[in-house]
Specification:
Layout: H1 2-15, E1 24-28, H2 37-51, E2 59-63, E3 77-82, H3 84-93, E4 103-104, E5 124-130, E6 134-142, H4 149-159, H5 172-182, H6 190-217
Parallel strand pairs: 1-2, 2-4
Antiparallel strand pairs: 3-6, 5-6
């Protein structure tokens, strides 16, 4: 199996003109079981070294997510989902050559997601807010029957320190949450709340990566 994968990688490299110092290799792992982090990290590094020489490309980017397929297990009110993909990345980073960038995720969408007509469903009103090591969640009852609940969810995100709210100026998503908390914005719809969560998530990840990079490169 390993030789078969290696052959496919090398064939693909030939198709694009070969690997070079300007080549980035992206591998989408989907939604793997990340724990235990150290065991998974060691196995991935070993497997990849056996596939492609480390000096034959610029960056290895491993994309994956710990975001669940369903939020059915999330509790009503406040809860959280561990960001195993981010926690794993920090363990993996210690095992890779300095300067190699490796992180990518699927924001707050599972890779198996398929668009459906929301008019045929009656999902709960909820807000997903990316924190340092988890996704903070605020979940209520039927959005269709009580869209005004979103004001309360947003107020909790602002007022509960465990959500680590970054302020209205942090991102568009944060600004919308802050405005909804005070009633300056309406409860909108599910599409808007997905957009809000994704926008905050991307901004948070970029900020965290920049800080992590600054710490790792400090003398």
């Amino acid at each position: 199996m390993r030789q078969d994968v290696r052959a496919r990688v090398l064939d693909l490299a030939d198709e694009v003109g070969g690997l070079s110092e300007e080549t980035d290799v992206l591998i989408d792992m989907g939604g793997p079981a990340y724990e235990p982090y150290d065991v998974f990290a060691n196995g991935l590094v070993l497997a990849f070294r056996n596939l492609v020489p480390a000096d034959s490309f610029r960056n290895l980017v491993l994309i994956g997510t710990a975001y669940p397929k369903s939020l059915g297990a999330v509790k009503l009110g406040s809860d959280e989902i561990p960001r195993h993909d981010w926690l794993f990345y920090r363990a993996l980073l210690q095992r890779l050559p300095a300067g190699m960038r490796t992180y990518g995720d699927h924001t707050i969408v599972h890779p198996s997601f398929k668009a459906v007509d929301m008019r045929a469903l009656n999902p709960a009103g909820k807000v997903l807010y990316t924190k340092s090591n988890a996704w903070g969640t605020r979940k209520g009852g039927s959005f269709r029957n009580d869209s005004a609940q979103m004001h309360g969810h947003c107020f909790e995100i602002l007022s509960d320190p465990s959500f680590e709210f970054r302020g209205a100026n942090f991102s568009y998503g944060d600004a919308y949450i802050a405005a909804c908390a005070t009633g300056a914005e309406g409860p909108s719809n599910h599409t808007r709340w997905k957009e809000v969560g994704i926008n905050h998530h991307i901004t948070r990840v970029v900020d965290d990566l920049a800080k992590l990079r600054a710490v790792s490169s400090a003398p």
